[in-house]
């Protein structure tokens, strides 16, 4: 694509986002194909996927294993380049941003890699200031304040001087979230953030996330296969199966029994709770639905 | 919460520089001709702060022409190896990575030996002849690192385990080549080669080489130090670093290149001095923590101190004959390494 054409596209994109200031992240007809080497046919394809996220809104990408939800998250994060379509964050394509700018706007919470050398919690959270620093990035008083604030916001202020490998899974997940907050992003991405947490810690974590999203007006995309947690905490869900985005909408509208049974290959029932949110019960193989 | 500041780094570097100075003075004292420790320190400070350009004439010649150049060489070789090792450890996310584990010393030795073999057959001008063997060593070292890098990549990404294994294999392959070359050589030239394999700082060096070594060290160190904060994040993993704004490919390329040049330069003038790039960063980490903004300069000073001490032991312990400095670092380094490894696993 010539640069002239590119800049025209960017301009129209910015115009579009200005016209609809409500939308922060716009995923437009995005597709992707993965093949281990270029001469082979792709072994995984993502068909055209679209959804939008507003500030203060949580969108959950939901689906069984290998449905393509992590691929969508990587595309949104700008780590992969879409085969077609585009992903705009405040009017700019996430993939074409330089890494530093991208990290100032997008923060990712993922399963943490094993730490090679021990680090204190505060050191870990300060890493979130990296994209905002200059050259050698010696942290300023301001950076320290922001990091302390971030720890406070996730309710982990007391962990500050502990070692990262000596806190519980739930505490660690909060600290990782605090590092993401320290980046002061506009878009927050979370990859299976509750995977290794017990149920109490899961609810705690998502409750904190819900509150922070509302106060700080983050746009949030969260990948999970926890139907009930997504149903409870997400404003919208995008249901994926085998590289296809089947439906996008409120949990109540997407959680149809037939649809979920077909996607997750198991018998289940869906009931509506008093707060209007759906509740899914998985049935035993030979159990009759009520 | 007490983040690292530039001031803290400067103070600690000052302390390390003072220790290096003391070590240098003590190293200067040792040798066949006795000199006074106090007079030495005073003279050296005088030269360093520009008060006088002369070291006392009674022992000036020995200090200036023989002991000081050798110590200066040790300082730059040690600092280069240690900084290179520290960098490779971050790049490969492996605390056991080190220039020698990557097979570089053997590659350099093959290059140098080939240069020794072909040199008599080429009618080289004298100014080229003096740098011919080190040049062969440098080319051998850099080609080895490049080859190991290419072998250790999978789908464009560095795979740390494959890379380390490639280095070990390359090392044993080149080791066999060296044995083959040695059997083909006349016995008169094998002594030089033996020194290459044991590490040697005693051979007088052409002034141009000293200049290249110093410039190369400062340039390589500066390049690596500028990425220090990126390396901190790379230690946490490539994906994490990317999401925190590190241009991972660029940093990996720049640091790998700079660390390779540092290794190549050091090996090409000193032969193989093992364990410096492994032990020194380890010890510095235990003292100063693993923030690369502090660790890199600390490793540079630590490497310099370690090699100067090792070389002093090498030339005095069996005086008047000399031990290879690489033999000293290996004799001290290997058990220390095993100890650190066991401690880590425990």
For this entry, give a set of tags.
heterodimer; A: 290 residues; alpha/beta; Rossmann fold; 2 domains; six-stranded mixed sheet; four-stranded antiparallel sheet; 10 helices; globular; disordered N terminus; B: 346 residues; mainly alpha; ABC transporter involved in vitamin B12 uptake, BtuC; two-stranded antiparallel ribbon; 14 helices; 2 strands; 1% strand
Topology, element by element:
The complex is a heterodimer of chains A (290) and B (346).
Chain A lengths: L2 H17 L5 E10 L9 E10 L4 E5 L6 H9 L6 E6 L2 E2 L5 H7 E4 L11 H6 L14 H13 L15 H14 L4 E5 L7 H18 L2 E6 L2 H7 L2 E6 L2 E6 L1 H4 L2 H8 L3 E5 L5 E5 L8
Parallel strand pairs in A: 3-8, 3-9, 6-7, 7-8
Antiparallel strand pairs in A: 1-2, 1-4, 4-5, 9-10, 11-12
Chain B lengths: L5 H24 L7 H12 L8 H35 L12 H15 L7 H26 L1 E2 L2 E2 L1 H25 L5 H9 L8 H20 L1 H7 L3 H6 L4 H23 L5 H13 L3 H25 L8 H21 L1
Antiparallel strand pairs in B: 1-2
Helix pairs in contact in B: 1-2, 1-13, 3-8, 3-11, 3-12, 3-13, 4-5, 4-6, 4-11, 5-6, 5-11, 8-11, 12-13, 12-14, 13-14
């Amino acid at each position: 694509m010539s640069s002239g054409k590119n800049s025209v596209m960017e301009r129209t994109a910015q115009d579009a986002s200005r016209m609809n200031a409500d939308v922060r992240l716009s995923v437009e007809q995005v597709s992707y194909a993965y093949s281990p080497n270029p001469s082979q046919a792709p072994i995984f394809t993502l068909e055209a996927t679209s959804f939008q996220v507003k500030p203060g809104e949580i969108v959950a990408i939901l689906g069984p294993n290998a449905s393509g939800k992590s691929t969508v998250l990587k595309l949104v994060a700008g780590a992969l380049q879409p085969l077609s379509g585009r992903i705009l964050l405040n009017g700019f394509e996430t993939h074409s941003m330089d890494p530093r700018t991208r990290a100032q706007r997008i923060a990712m919470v993922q399963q943490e890699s094993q730490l090679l050398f021990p680090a204190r919690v505060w050191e870990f959270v300060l890493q979130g200031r990296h994209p905002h620093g200059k050259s050698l990035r010696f942290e300023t008083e301001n950076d320290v304040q922001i990091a302390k604030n971030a720890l406070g916001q996730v309710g982990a202020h007391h962990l500050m001087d502990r070692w990262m490998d000596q806190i519980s899974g739930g505490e660690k997940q909060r600290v990782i979230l605090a590092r993401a907050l320290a980046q002061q992003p506009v878009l927050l991405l979370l990859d299976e953030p509750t995977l290794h947490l017990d149920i109490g810690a899961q609810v705690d974590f998502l409750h904190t996330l819900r509150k922070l999203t509302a106060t700080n007006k983050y746009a949030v995309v969260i990948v999970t296969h926890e139907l009930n947690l997504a149903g409870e905490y997400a404003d919208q869900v995008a249901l994926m199966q085998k590289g296809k985005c089947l439906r996008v909408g409120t949990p109540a509208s997407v959680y149809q029994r037939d649809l979920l049974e077909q996607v997750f290959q198991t018998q289940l029932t869906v009931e509506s709770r008093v707060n209007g949110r759906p509740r899914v019960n998985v049935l035993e193989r030979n159990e009759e639905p009520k | 919460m007490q983040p690292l500041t530039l001031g803290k780094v400067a103070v600690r570097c000052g302390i390390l520089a003072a220790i290096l100075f003391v070590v240098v003075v003590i190293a200067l004292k040792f040798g066949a001709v006795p000199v006074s420790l106090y007079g030495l320190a005073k003279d050296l400070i005088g030269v360093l702060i520009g008060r006088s350009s002369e070291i006392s004439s009674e022992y000036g010649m020995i200090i200036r022409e023989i002991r000081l150049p050798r110590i200066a060489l040790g300082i730059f070789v040690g600092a280069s190896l240690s900084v290179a090792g520290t960098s490779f450890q971050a790049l490969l996310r492996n605390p056991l990575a080190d220039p020698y584990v990557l097979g570089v010393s053997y590659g350099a030795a093959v290059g140098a030996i080939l240069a020794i073999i072909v040199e008599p057959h080429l009618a080289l001008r004298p100014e080229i002849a003096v740098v011919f063997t080190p040049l062969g060593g440098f080319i051998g070292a850099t080609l080895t690192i490049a080859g190991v890098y290419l072998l250790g990549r999978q789908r464009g990404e560095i795979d740390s385990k494959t890379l380390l294994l490639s280095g070990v294999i390359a090392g044993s392959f080149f080791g066999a080549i060296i044995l083959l070359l040695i059997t083909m050589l006349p016995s008169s030239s094998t002594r030089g080669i033996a020194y290459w394999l044991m590490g040697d700082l005693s051979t007088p060096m052409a002034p141009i080489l000293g200049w290249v070594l110093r410039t190369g060290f400062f340039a390589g160190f500066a390049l690596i130090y500028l990425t220090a904060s990126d390396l901190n994040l790379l230690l946490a993993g490539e994906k994490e670093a990317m999401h925190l704004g590190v241009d991972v490919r660029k940093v990996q390329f720049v640091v790998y290149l700079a660390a390779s040049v540092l290794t190549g330069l050091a090996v090409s003038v000193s032969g193989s001095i093992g364990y410096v790039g492994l032990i020194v960063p380890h010890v510095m980490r235990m003292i100063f923590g693993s923030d690369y903004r502090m660790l890199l300069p600390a490793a540079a000073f630590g490497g310099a101190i370690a090699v100067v001490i090792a070389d002093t032991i090498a030339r005095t312990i069996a005086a008047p004959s000399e031990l290879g400095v690489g033999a000293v670092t290996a004799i001290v380094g290997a058990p220390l390494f095993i100890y650190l490894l066991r401690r880590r696993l425990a």
